[in-house]
Write a structure and sequence with these properties.
Elements (H helix, E strand, L loop, with lengths): L8 H14 L6 H5 L6 H12 L5 H15 L10 H10 L5 E4 L3 H10 L8 E4 L11 H10 L7 E4 L2 H10 L2 E4 L8 H5 L3 E2 L6 H9 L1
Parallel strand pairs: 1-2, 3-4, 4-5
Helix pairs in contact: 1-4
Length: 209
């Protein structure tokens, strides 16, 4: 969802930087880009390990969350091609689910703002699984709720942790990079790499019809 369907990672990144600045911290921005795709418990642990000696991590997270929620109060922008992909699949009767590290309440709010919830069979969130990305549980759960095998799914991801999780589930992965840092390994896990979701309808016509 975040960074793939919705252009929210930039807002999150800005929130982390503003929170750090307000706490008088100079933190390498790479540390924040590395946590993209993790659920809350995972990124808190990652921050403790990376910068726990420099900052009170719970205070940083709370301040960043407050700034972020203020920024998205009136909705968040969609990435190019996201709506047309979702509606194309919906019109063809092809089931689709969201597997997001965000909390369920926040996912419902963000997707609801764009009237997208009706198109999804389910929304599996980070607070509904035991193991966050890069563990494959969230993708396996999404496939189960659609009544299909993960190996019969296309998984679209923007983050390094997400692409590892999707590939480990057995799904075929399409990488659409955003702000998250990638390496050769994560790129090699992708069946294809797209510049944006605008390629979707043409590829779906080729693959699925």
């Amino acid at each position: 969802m975040d960074g793939l369907l919705l252009d929210t990672e930039r807002i999150s990144h800005e929130s982390w930087l503003q929170a750090s600045h307000e706490l008088g911290l100079e933190i390498d921005v790479v540390e924040f880009r590395r946590i993209i795709g993790m659920n809350e418990s995972s990124f808190r642990e990652a921050l403790h390990q990376a910068i726990g000696d420099q900052v009170d991590v719970p205070e940083l997270v709370a301040k960043s969350d407050k700034i972020y929620h203020q920024k998205i109060g009136h909705g968040v922008p969609m990435h190019k091609g996201a709506r047309i992909c979702i509606e194309w699949l919906s019109n063809e009767g092809i089931p689709q689910s969201v597997a997001t590290s965000s909390k369920q309440s926040l996912a419902q709010k963000k997707l609801g703002h764009h009237d997208l919830i009706c198109h999804f069979h389910s929304i599996v969130s980070g607070d509904q699984v035991t193991n966050g990305k890069p563990h494959p549980e969230i993708f396996i759960t999404a496939a189960e709720q659609m009544g299909v095998e993960p190996s019969d799914c296309l998984a679209f991801e923007d983050s390094l942790h997400g692409i590892h999780a999707a590939a480990a589930s057995g799904a075929r992965v399409i990488l659409v990079p955003d702000l998250a840092i990638h390496n050769d390994e994560s790129r090699c896990l992708a069946h294809e790499i797209w510049e944006s979701l605008e390629r979707g309808p043409e590829k779906f016509q080729e693959w699925l019809v």
